[in-house]
Design a protein that fits this description.
It is built from 15 helices and 13 strands. It is of the alpha/beta class. It has a 7-stranded parallel sheet with strand order 3-2-1-4-5-6-7.
Length: 413
């Protein structure tokens, strides 16, 4: 008979095992490096040198977050090592002279490499540093986090950003939430730097260049997140039934994680609602065109809401399921989510009661003038320094690097 271990205990045991193996590996590695150093007459090998700048991406879809930053680093002639856990990451085909991308394996294999990384500064959008498998390397001086959405930073899983040294932000409300969490958990204050949103700057510039979408039938984009509180988990196929009755063109773009975590649910929906002239399922890695050719978005708590409404200047319809905050950092805070104040200014709420009138809800959102003013105000609150995100991010990274290396030289004397 097999002994059952619940997922939480399993994760804890795995983390302990990784820690024990890691400590032994680190000790052996240090001993080996000392022996190599002695045998070589005191000359360090190239592989033993500290990497100045590392970017880590756990998924290929975050290349849109990092590419503007990589381009700016390349323009300034700064060497960057881009480590990705996706073997088909577009970053691996980048043509920047100073950006070297490498696939470091998936899941635990990637984290094993990161746990013994030797670098001055690491930038990532991945939460959970020093919480589960991804541990802070003793040979990385500074960890910097950049969000991948223009909304709450407290909607990461609990303790998601606690052990970063610095967080790059786009709104004052994000800083206030982080400071509140630090105080509640008695954590040292992180460095908080308001740089803006590089990937949204990129999207806005791309949209300006592309111009408006070609003439098309009225198009509704349904882009749910994933999990028990997301649209498909709450409403199932009912939401597709009512949308198809509108006669409008419907695009369904599930969150990429749904195809892994909710595979059975999605396969059932795609079988029951196959593609047709009216309905399409979209899985493009790049969401630019699908957002551009959609007139209105229906979503839940997905960050795509802010991409769509702030960059493309279009209204949204948002659902309000019973959102369980208990797994998230936001659960610790007494203040309401900023998103709950932003959404009513961007569009209308979809409920069980008005779902049967969804065509009227869509039409009213597309014509109501108050939502245009709401978008302007929300943009001011959550998108600082439009057009300057990449430059400000790189300014900060280079400044912090100079401070770290100067301090290292002083202590080495």
């Amino acid at each position: 008979m097999f002994m059952y271990i619940d997922p939480g205990t399993g994760s804890m045991l795995f983390t302990i095992l990784i820690g024990v193996i890691g400590a032994a590996f680190y000790s052996l590695k240090v001993l080996w490096m000392k022996l190599r150093f002695a045998v070589s007459g005191g000359k360090a090998k190239e592989n033993d040198r500290k990497i100045p700048f590392v970017i880590f991406s756990d998924d290929k879809r975050y290349w849109t977050v990092f590419e503007p930053i990589c381009r700016e680093m390349d323009r300034r002639g700064k060497e960057v090592v881009y480590m990705t856990a996706s073997e088909d990451d577009p970053a691996l085909k980048n043509t920047y002279a100073h950006v070297k991308a490498e696939f470091i394996g998936k899941g635990n294999k990637a984290f094993a490499k990161l746990n013994f990384l030797k670098a001055t500064l690491l930038l990532s959008t991945t939460p959970g540093l020093d919480v589960y498998q991804w541990k802070r390397s003793k040979q990385v001086q500074y960890y910097v986090h950049i969000p991948h959405a223009a909304s709450e930073i407290t909607l990461y899983r609990m303790f998601g950003i606690d052990y970063y040294d610095a967080i790059l932000l786009s709104g004052e409300y994000q800083a206030a939430d982080i400071r509140s969490l630090e105080k509640l958990r008695e954590l040292p204050e992180k460095e908080l730097v308001q740089v803006g949103i590089p990937y949204m700057d990129e999207m806005a510039a791309r949209l300006e260049k592309a111009g408006p979408a070609p003439e098309h039938p009225r198009t509704v984009l349904l882009a749910p997140s994933w999990g028990q509180s997301a649209i498909f988990s709450v409403y199932g196929g009912k939401i597709l039934d009512v949308l198809l009755k509108t006669g409008y063109h419907i695009i369904v773009r599930p969150h990429p994680q749904s195809f892994a975590s909710e595979k059975e649910l999605l396969e059932g929906l795609m079988k029951n609602y196959p593609e047709s002239e009216q309905l399409e399922w979209n899985r493009d890695t790049d969401n630019f065109e699908v957002l551009r050719r959609s007139d209105i978005l229906i979503s839940d708590f997905s960050g795509v809401i802010f991409d769509f409404t702030l960059v493309y200047d279009k209204p949204v319809i948002y659902t309000d399921p019973q959102f369980d905050l208990s797994p998230y950092d936001a659960w610790w805070l007494k203040t309401p989510l900023w998103t709950t104040s932003a959404l009513p200014r961007l569009g209308r709420r979809l409920t069980e009661e008005n779902m049967g009138e969804i065509k009227e809800v869509i039409d009213s959102c597309l014509t109501a003038p108050e939502y245009a003013e709401g978008r302007r105000r929300v943009k001011e609150e959550t998108w600082a320094h439009p057009g300057e995100g990449a430059a400000r991010t790189v300014d900060y990274l280079l400044s912090r690097y100079e401070e770290l290396t100067s301090e290292e030289k002083r202590t080495a004397k």
